[in-house]
Design a protein that fits this description.
Elements (H helix, E strand, L loop, with lengths): L2 E8 L6 H17 L3 E8 L6 H11 L3 E6 L5 H11 L4 E4 L11 H9 L5 E6 L7 H17 L8 E8 H9 L7 H7 L4 E6 L13 H15 L2 H31 L6 H34 L6 E4 L8
Parallel strand pairs: 1-2, 1-4, 2-3, 5-7
Antiparallel strand pairs: 3-8, 4-6, 5-6
The chain binds uridine-5'-diphosphate (UDP) and magnesium ion.
């Protein structure tokens, strides 16, 4: 009998959790009647509301409910990693607690994996209804850029919601880097992925934890984690400017020799100095970003710290 683990990161989800629990209980009952064993792992990512209380009450009523509770908020990436480390199923799903990842898709996803042709079933939003236009546009540009300059293969509109085989989850767990960008890691490890498109669903209750600025920083993080191209920008700027200055030098020398007209212009000089200074600082900043990542990586701190849990089996990480 195949076991399916459903990993659900939760951060202050007291409003949405009851809806989610209802839906996932119904789907789990259906799956069990079709011969699957179910394990639902809630990861309480340092919630400050009643989320943990709710999860514990579910665990008391339903033996399929397991939980890990972090000592503070470590972020969704750490919560997903913890879920993968502790899940013991043959198939492992990861989904949000706010019903934006419809639990009703799970049976179909399990059927696809059962056929054995694919190692994972991932979901992709085909519409971004209900999202600000500028956010959708930026998201699309981000996907274009990161696919172009890195070997992460990320579909536009890809959600984190996916179901994977044990083989694939083990591969994800083996990528134990501290700076995690799961969307990129899923693509980077390879394997055969079936994409399920679906219409965007609005959050059932509660509020999103992401604002535009946080998403922007997340996007920059993704690019830095998966691409070395920004690092080479400094070299390209340098080559371009050297070539330009050489042409200018020849021009000025010839001009001086031919018409003996020294170039005047304090304004243009200052503009050039500020321009070059700006580019130098920009490139230094990029290097700083990479160095900061190396710094965090070399400290080898744990991805998360667990305050309590009700899982008997040990973590794989
Ligand atoms: N989440 C989390 N830790 C965080 C932020 C979010 O575990 O620091 C969880 C959250 O509870 C939800 C999922 O990650 O289940 C997605 O979060 P959200 O709905 O805010 O993101 P959005 O769907 O708007 O991208
Ligand atoms: Mg959401």
């Amino acid at each position: 009998m195949k076991k399916v683990s459903i990993v659900v990161p939760c951060y202050n989800e007291q409003e949405a959790l009851p809806y989610f629990m209802n839906a996932i209980t119904e789907i789990s009952d259906g799956l069990e009647s079709r011969g699957k064993k179910i394990e639902i792992i809630f990861i309480n990512d340092g919630s400050t509301d009643q989320t943990m209380k709710l999860i514990k009450s579910y665990a008391q009523k339903d033996a399929r409910v397991k939980y890990l509770s972090f000592s503070r908020n470590f972020g969704k990436e750490s919560a997903m990693y913890a879920g993968f480390c502790w899940a013991s199923g043959d198939y492992v799903a990861v989904m949000d607690a706010d019903m934006q990842d419809p639990p009703s898709l799970l049976p179909q996803m399990i059927d696809i994996l059962d056929h054995g042709e694919y190692d994972s079933v991932a979901t992709r939003r085909v519409t971004r209804v209900g999202e600000p236009l500028i956010r959708s546009w930026c998201a699309r540009q981000f996907y274009k850029l990161i696919n172009h300059i890195s070997d992460a293969d990320i579909a536009d509109g890809a959600r984190d919601f996916r179901l994977m085989t044990r083989k694939m989850v083990d591969a994800i767990v083996s990528v134990s880097e501290y700076n995690r960008f799961s969307k990129g890691i899923f693509g980077w490890i390879g394997f055969r992925t079936c994409w399920l498109p679906y219409e965007n669903v609005k959050r059932v209750a509660g509020e999103t934890k992401w604002n535009f600025w946080k998403l922007f920083l997340y996007a920059i993080d993704g690019i830095i984690n998966f691409s070395k191209v920004p690092l080479s920008l400094a070299s390209w700027f340098g080559i371009g400017m050297t070539a330009f200055s050489f042409v200018m030098l020849v021009y000025l020398v010839v001009r001086k020799l031919m018409i003996d007209d020294p170039v005047s212009g304090w304004t243009s000089l200052i503009c050039v100095i500020i321009f070059i200074g700006g580019i130098q600082l920009f490139c230094l900043g990029i290097m700083g970003q990479y160095i900061a990542k190396i710094y965090m990586e070399t400290k080898r701190r744990p991805h998360y710290i667990i305050a309590e849990n009700n899982i008997e089996k040990e973590s794989r990480c």
